[in-house]
Amino acid sequence: MDTYIVEGGEKLYGKVKVQSAKNTVLPLLAGAVLTDEQVKIRGVPTINDAENMLRILNEVGCKIKRQDGNVIIDSSGAVSHEIPQRLTKELRSSVFMLGSVLTRFCRAKISYPGGCDIGLRPIDLHLSGLKRLGVEIVEEGGYIECRADKLVGAEILLDFPSVGATENIILAAVKAEGITVIRNAAKEPEIVDLQNFLNAMGAKVRGAGGGTVVIEGVKRLHGVDYTPIGDRIEGGTFLIACAVCGGEIELCGVPAENISALLHKLRENGCKIHTKNDKIVLRSDGKLKSVDLVETMPFPGFPTDLQAQYAALCCKVKGTTIIVENLFETRYKYAGELKRMGADITVRGRTAVIRGVERLHGARVTASDLRGGASLVVAALAAEGRSEILNLSHIDRGYADFERKLKKLGAKIRRVRI
Ligand code: EPZ
User: Strands (DSSP E) along 253-349, which ranges?
Assistant: First the structure.
């Protein structure tokens, strides 16, 4: 099993360029089946989630080519409307395939993705949105079978601005007959990126980033050569690591407005931050003070995907921080592992109370989910002494070259097979 060995206490200095955003690459890959022509997506990170999505495309009959970090997809041979269960279990985002496979075949079959380490993660909003577009859905024996004589545009109001549901409905509506309006849509930058990708293929999508997305169905979509946006969550992870360890880093590839809520909190913590275009420079003396309260919210609020990493920083600031996780039910599994490093963190339901301590000490800890694993790395970098971090497969789902990028910033981290 691969393990990180970290010698904590080093300040971080230098430049780091983020990967293409995991949470935009996944829906874009799903969107590749919307055309018979070649789709090229640049800079696809070598992360397990992307590899699994490519396996799914392969299974439905697409030809995949990886070339200099880019992915070229030829869907002309796509024949199957069924997403295999073993891959759905691996990757929740396979549910994005529902919308694009339905658009392609007017049929789709997927095993119920079920919950994961951070919560129940229902897909009722996805399914109710697809039903509004004329899709008949039968849920039986752990499978979801969808079929539609044809997809017809409709008005859809989401009870919650779900990222996945917004993306799935857009993918199902781009070639539907007529106009689809999604109200209370998610506003994440990844939704804007999906809109730009689809419009570059000849779709007519507008309003992404605001609360209402309007899709005018078109007859066909053509190929595209597309560069996704930078990964704001990977970038935020590096900023948090530098804030708590001390030092100065320049983050390239994330416009400040894509993580403004995090930057606001880090400034309150005492970091010096200046931004220009898609560059963010953060300087910290490592002696931070707490902010009182952090509540995770849909964009542009504080991102739930940075909650765990930020909690690691709160363990070592002066004062007490209250974190409320409003999106997922069980996104504090990392807390017990941080306590093994000397953190003073109490979790009750969706709330964590973190009292900053003078120092954290190294320990042997185990990752239980993607962002929780990243949190353990941040804490180990800020701790005194040696830490071992196990179960790296969770971290590998979303961070490519993580240890190489951290080493380049001066961190003492290495990956060993134990
Ligand atoms: C996306 O997940 C991201 N994943 C998640 O990132 C991210 O945490 C989440 O959005 C919120 O920003 C990808 O984009 C691949 P949601 P998604 O639908 O689409 C409830 C990471 O670490 N909900 O916005 O699944 C749900 O229970 C991952 O990179 C319903 O009730 O998130 C949750 O409470 C983790 N019914 C809330 O909405 C539904 O049909 C937010 O979920 C769908 C969602």
Answer: 272-276, 279-284, 293-295, 320-324, 344-348
Our CA angle for 48, 394, 347, nearest 5°, is: 145
Give all strands (DSSP E) within 98-237, no chain letters: 107-111, 136-140, 143-147, 155-157, 179-183, 204-206, 212-216, 224-226
pLDDT of the residue at 75: 93
CATH number belonging to domain 2-19+230-417: 3.65.10.10
Tokens matching residue 223: 């190929």
Asked if residue 307 has its Cβ within 6 Å of ligand 1, the reply is no
Q: Does the beta carbon of 193 lie inside 6 Å of ligand 1?
A: no
CATH placement of domain 22-226: 3.65.10.10
Which pLDDT score is estimated for 115?
Answer: 65
Same fold flag, 2-19+230-417 and 22-226: yes
Catalytic residue among 62, 106, 116, 146: 116
* Domains of the chain by residue range: 2-19+230-417, 22-226
Measured CA to CA, the distance from residue 76 to residue 333 in angstroms comes to: 43
Q: Distance between CA atoms of 32 and 14, rounded to whole angstroms?
A: 36
Distance from the CA of 329 to the center of ligand 1, in angstroms? 11
Euclidean distance between CA atoms 315 and 378, whole angstroms: 11
pLDDT digits (tens, 9 = 90+) for 284-297: 999 999 999 999 99
